[in-house]
Amino acid sequence: MSQNTFPKGFLWGGATAANQIEGGFDLGGKGLSSADMIPYIPKEERTGDHTSDLTSQQIEEALNGTSTRHFPKRGGIDFYHHYKEDIALFAEMGFKAFRMSISWPRIFPKGDEQQPNEEGLAFYDNVFDELRKYGIEPVVSLSHYEMPIHLIEEYGGWTNRKLVGFFEHYAKTVFARYKDKVTYWMTFNEINCITLSPYNGGGIVSDRYDHVDQASYQGLHHQFVASALAVKAGHEINPQSKIGCMLALMESYAETCNPDDVLKTLKEEQLNMFFTDVQVRGYYPSYIQRFFDEQNIKIDMEPGDTDILKNHTVDYLSFSYYMTFVTSASPHGEKAPGNLFAGIKNPYLESSEWGWQIDPVGLRIALNKLYDRYQVPLFIVENGLGAIDKVPEDGLIEDDYRIDYLRKHIEQMKEAIKDGVDLMGYTAWGPIDLISVSTSEMQKRYGFIYVDQDNEGNGTLARSKKKSFHWYQKVIETNGEVL
User: Fold this and answer.
1) How far apart (Å, rounded) are the C-alpha atoms in residues 198 and 209?
2) Is the pLDDT of residue 386 over 80?
3) Which residues, including other chains, have CB under 8 Å from residue 200's CB and lie 6 or more apart?
């Protein structure tokens, strides 16, 4: 029987990350995190599309207080104090699910302790209880671009095998604590980004390594093992739990039918699917070895690693989708930026204010290809439009551009379900305005809910509903039938 509409129990909601919303960086016994070191750099001073990969000097200045920069992720949008108000607004929209992350250094301030921070555990108890009060399922990432800074400075981040044990201990701690409150978990957010943004993804400070790719892929292997061990522990502690992986999806089109372009696109796709091949299928695919050989990368594995990966694969595959790219074998053409990626501009697509290309049909293509490849439930856990919202005198932001973007993507999700794809949910990125991961700015807004705060952290933090709030409310109420 083909499914012609969104299934009953579809997980409609929104997605966030602790380091982008939570704040309270020095409250409740929380330790400093990698994200607390990332400054806001005005656009005119940036040398690249994103500023989240730090140098040793930047970290030193952030730690010793000599930096003159503003650190937006330390304050977020103060979800730490506003969570009841925010969750009430999510409930008013009708959320079935809320994707969030736990801040590792709020549970283990340094990351290598044996005993967790009870005040941190209690905070998430309160958040989960508040979600449950409204019947909202928490979808919880264990690691979303954040780790204790101590693990970076003392151990070298994920390049060090010891982090596997530290992460496993952290995972077991929260699985046991919240086994009656959380069913849906994810291990590492956008796990492929460790190779593109080593500091963000793996606590790897690039200027400390002669061969950054070697360090990144070694760190990635440690994350693969840690993720599999977390899946093992989660299933043992609560057999009902569902634990997924998470990929930043890079769907790319060959620029022409030139076989060289098609081959290059295939290779790009393999490099994107490599991460989920390991976590869903349970082994390193054969094609990756040639890439390692050509890049002079050698993965150091311990005995038993292959069995761990094989025996503890994920229950579902979640991913972020914002844009598509065009690939050519010959470097040329106007570039189109992305969240942490860039490619050739596609002349058939429109672009956002940040130059990200808008491709709803690409989402249907990606869903079909992923489901054909893996045959496991899929979960879109990030998708949205970053834009500058202008606040009119009456206060109601008319964000029809956001509604249009989301409507077109949801329409293509429905088409993919008709195609036979098993899609379990959709959590739009940034249901409430938050700090940008790539640039630490506030003006690139995604939310259905406006937060009164600027790039420098000024503002009242007052929350207000945008036009899209009421639109998404109707989408959820009708299970995607009224768009």
Assistant:
1) 11
2) yes
3) 34, 52, 53, 145, 193, 194, 340, 437
Cα 386 to Cα 119: distance, rounded to the nearest angstrom? 34
**What is the spatial distance between Cα 236 and Cα 68, in angstroms, rounded to a whole number?**
47
421, pLDDT greater than 80: yes
Q: Which two tokens stand for residue 428?
A: 């739009």
Condensed to tens digits (0 to 9), the pLDDT of residues 185-242 reads: 999 999 999 999 999 999 999 999 999 999 999 999 999 999 999 999 999 999 999 9
Residue type, 245: C
DSSP per residue, 282-343: -S--THHHHHHHHTT------TTHHHHHHH---SEEEEE---EEEE-SS--S-EEE-SS-EE
Report helix angle 360-374 to 400-418, nearest 10.
30
Per residue in 368-381, pLDDT (tens digit) is 999 999 999 999 99
Residue pair 470/478 in contact (Cβ under 8 Å)? The answer is no
Q: What is the mean pLDDT of the chain?
A: 95
Q: Catalytic residue, from 137, 255, 382, 441: name it.
A: 382
Q: How far apart are CA 232 and CA 168, in angstroms?
A: 10
Which whole number is the average pLDDT over 31-43? 94
In sequence order, the 6+-apart residues with CB closer than 8 A to the CB of 331 are: none
User: 94 by DSSP, 3-state: which?
Assistant: coil
Model confidence pLDDT, tens digit, residues 132-148: 999 999 999 999 999 99
- Considering only CA atoms, which of 148, 181, 182, 184 is closest in space to residue 167? 148
The bridge status of strand 251-254 relative to strand 357-358 is unpaired
Question: Taking 60 as the threshold, does the pLDDT of residue 1 lie above it?
Answer: no
Cβ-in-10-Å burial (0-12, 13-18, 19+) of 399 comes to buried
User: Can you tell me the distance from the alpha carbon of 94 to that of 99, in angstroms, rounded to the nearest whole number?
Assistant: 14
Catalytic: 382?
A: yes
pLDDT at 50: 56
CB of 462 within 8 A of CB of 452? Answer: yes
Q: Which of 109, 97, 103, 225 is nearest to 160 (CA)?
A: 225
- Both structure tokens of 255: 């620029």
Give, in order, the Cα–Cα distances in Å from 98 to each of 362, 425, 442. 25, 11, 21
CA 332 vs. chain centroid, Å, equals 30
Q: State the residue for tokens 């380091």.
A: 19
Per-residue pLDDT of 270-312, as tens digits, reads 999 999 999 999 999 999 999 999 999 999 999 999 999 999 9
- Asked if the model's pLDDT at residue 28 lies above 90, the reply is yes
The gap between the terminal CA atoms of the chain, to the nearest Å, is 25
Q: Which residue ranges make up each domain of the chain?
A: 11-477
Question: In whole angstroms, what is the distance from residue 288 CA to residue 286 CA?
Answer: 6
Structural contact between residues 344 and 328, judged by C-beta atoms closer than 8 angstroms = yes
pLDDT, residue 338, reads 62
CATH level 2 (architecture), domain 11-477: Alpha-Beta Barrel (3.20)
